[in-house]
């Protein structure tokens, strides 16, 4: 099973921006298209193969504006070869129809969260009919989903989804555990192990990310369990105690070093496309 097999190399995904942090609180957060493009280039150089994108508007606020999403996809493709994954999670305030329309921007991949989660003081809303609708649209549009798992029940829900609608476009099933959200699974190795033990048999690869102070422990746990990595300022703004992250490439570079130390160096983009079932 995917949970037990050790991939030769490590897919590193960077999630550089997110929807929760304000530019005022974090001036180094990349929010403009130029910053996104520069981030993509530097993160690829540092070892990333995929980028998970949340877009901001001219006021640096989260947006799902269709034109802006298309521009972001073009900006990243112009600056790098990274696999482009758009967030369909958006922010907790985004309506479901806007989130479905993200696929119109024609990314390689999109995030697809497997259930509703309390999200700090907010609620990240993912009703089952929405999950099914979004999944079927990815199949129709030829977009490879990355299933986001914030809680153990969502792992079981993925099994139900795959049973009912079959495999994703490309035939591979890649999931990402997001641990440490207040309201979701805690950011512990034990929670990750429980998630891995529950994975449906169709899953072919997995990554994990820990939010906030769980970032580094979960990175190490993922490496030691043979998984892939997601890092970035969406998930973690502190590089070390008292030392903020200055650039996403720092987090990617550290992940690449640790993966190399674990004898699973960063996966080149071409190999990552194969892993995810994307055309060469
Ligand atoms: N911003 C969160 C509410 C995703 O990108 O798909 C949802 C999120 C998950 O970040
Ligand atoms: Zn996201």
UniProtKB/TrEMBL annotation:
It comes from Microlunatus panaciterrae. The keyword Metal-binding applies. Keywords: Metal-binding, Transferase, Zinc. The keyword Magnesium does not apply. PANTHER family: 3-KETO-5-AMINOHEXANOATE CLEAVAGE ENZYME, 3-KETO-5-AMINOHEXANOATE CLEAVAGE ENZYME-RELATED. InterPro entries: Aldolase_TIM, BKACE. Its cofactor is Zn(2+). This is Uncharacterized protein (DUF849 family). It holds the Pfam family BKACE.
């Amino acid at each position: 099973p995917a949970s037990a097999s050790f991939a030769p190399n490590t897919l590193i995904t960077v999630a550089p921006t997110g929807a929760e942090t304000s530019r005022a609180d974090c001036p180094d957060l990349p929010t403009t298209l130029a910053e996104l493009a520069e981030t993509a280039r530097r993160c690829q150089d540092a070892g990333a193969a995929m980028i998970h994108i949340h877009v901001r508007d001219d006021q640096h606020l989260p947006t799902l504006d269709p034109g802006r999403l298309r521009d972001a996809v073009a900006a990243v493709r112009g600056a790098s070869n990274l696999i482009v994954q758009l967030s369909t999670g958006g922010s907790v305030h985004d309506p479901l129809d806007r989130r479905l329309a993200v696929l119109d921007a024609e990314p390689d991949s999109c995030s697809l969260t497997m259930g509703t989660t309390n999200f700090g003081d907010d609620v990240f809303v993912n009703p089952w009919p929405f999950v099914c609708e979004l999944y079927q649209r990815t199949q129709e549009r030829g977009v490879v989903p990355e299933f986001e798992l914030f809680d153990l029940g969502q792992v079981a829900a993925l099994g139900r989804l795959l049973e009912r609608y079959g495999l994703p476009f490309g035939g591979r099933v890649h999931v990402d555990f997001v641990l440490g959200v207040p309201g979701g699974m805690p950011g512990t190795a034990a929670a990750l192990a429980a998630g891995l033990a529950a994975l449906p048999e169709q899953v072919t690869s997995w990554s994990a990310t820990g939010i906030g102070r769980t970032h580094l422990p979960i990175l190490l746990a993922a490496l030691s369990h043979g998984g892939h990595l997601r890092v970035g300022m969406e998930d973690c703004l502190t590089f070390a105690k008292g030392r903020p992250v200055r650039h996403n490439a720092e987090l990617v570079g550290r992940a690449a070093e640790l993966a190399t130390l674990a004898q699973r160096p960063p996966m080149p983009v071409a190999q990552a496309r194969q892993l995810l079932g994307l055309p060469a």
